Amino acid sequence: MATIDRSIAIIGAGSMGGAIAGGLVASGAIDAARIWVLDPSDAAVAPLEERGIHRAGSLEELVALGTDVTVLAVKPQVLPAVLSQMSDSLTDRLVVSIAAGVRLATLQAGLPGARVVRVMPNLPLQVLSGATAVCPGTTATGEDAELVRSIFAALGSAQVMTEAQLDVAGAVTGCGPAFFALFVDDLTRAGVRAGLPAAACREMVLATMRGVAQQLLDSGDHPRAYLERVTSPGGTTAAALEELECDLFVATGAAIDAALERTRELAKA
Asked: Hey, is 131 helix, strand or coil?
């Protein structure tokens, strides 16, 4: 992977902000000496400092650094206060927000003159296997969008899309890790109910999930083709899928609809 020759400031070193900073270093995409983070938590920042990432002491110090990219990795309820403190300081600077439900129009109004890009990453970027939707605002250039996409592509998959598509991607890939974890837990519990030891069952389920994901990635097969390959006519898997598939599809669709509704509510808050 080619090194991205840019500097980056990250406001917020929580689970997502810390994962972005640490992941960029782990991937080799950006040298640690070109990354600064700002967070009041010593516990959050210390592991990043150990990797050579700098800690800024204040927003004023961070802005004065003049980094190429500023990432707002704070919770949506905290973002208005951050925007009010930085509204006059980031003119013609590239600013990236990961705040769920905060629309580009709101971000651009709060940062007049900044070149704003909204992204929706998910937590697997902690292991360089994230999925990130990237949506440039009207003030951002095509080069800005490609730079942001390349930064998050170093942490997994990153795709440029419209804001409406980004909201859907946020529901699918943002909630997806919880969905997968829930299915692992449900499948493990079903195995335990049928007589398997819990720890052994969970280990086998996780190994299976990892293996299926790797096979799908390596082969490029459509998931439906994979299903057909592992399902013998009249066999046990066919019988199990008949019970599972319809209800799972309906429940998954309802879950995505609920996530999108909550996204709309957050956007209005």
From this structure: strand
> How many other β-carbons are positioned within 10 Å of the β-carbon of residue 49?
14
Determine contact, residues 37/53, Cβ cutoff 8 Å.
Answer: yes
Give the other-Cβ count within 10 Å of 249's Cβ. Answer: 10
Average pLDDT, the chain: 94
DSSP three-state, residue 200? helix
Q: Which DSSP letter does residue 235 get? A: S
- What confidence score (pLDDT) does residue 101 get? 84
Side-chain half-sphere exposure of 146, counting CA atoms within 13 A: 3
The ranges assigned to domains in the chain are 8-161, 170-268
Mean pLDDT of 134-151: 97
Burial-class residue 33 by CB neighbours within 10 Å (0-12, 13-18, 19+). Answer: exposed
The residue-averaged pLDDT of 49-68 equals 93
Provide CATH code, domain 170-268.
1.10.3730.10
> Higher model confidence: residue 263 or residue 74?
74
Q: What is the pTM of this model?
A: 0.89
Name which of 149, 23, 24 is nearest 94 in CA terms.
Answer: 149
pLDDT (0 to 100) of residue 269: 67
- Return d(Cα 118, Cα 95) in angstroms, integer: 8
Q: Is residue 267 scored above 80 in pLDDT?
A: no
In the predicted model, what is the mean pLDDT of residues 18-39?
Answer: 95
Q: Which CATH fold topology does 8-161 show?
A: Rossmann fold (3.40.50)
- Please tell me the number of Cα atoms within 13 Å of 68 on its side-chain side: 13
How far apart (Å, rounded) are the C-alpha atoms in residues 212 and 207?
9
Under DSSP, is residue 163 helix (H, G, I), strand (E, B) or coil?
helix
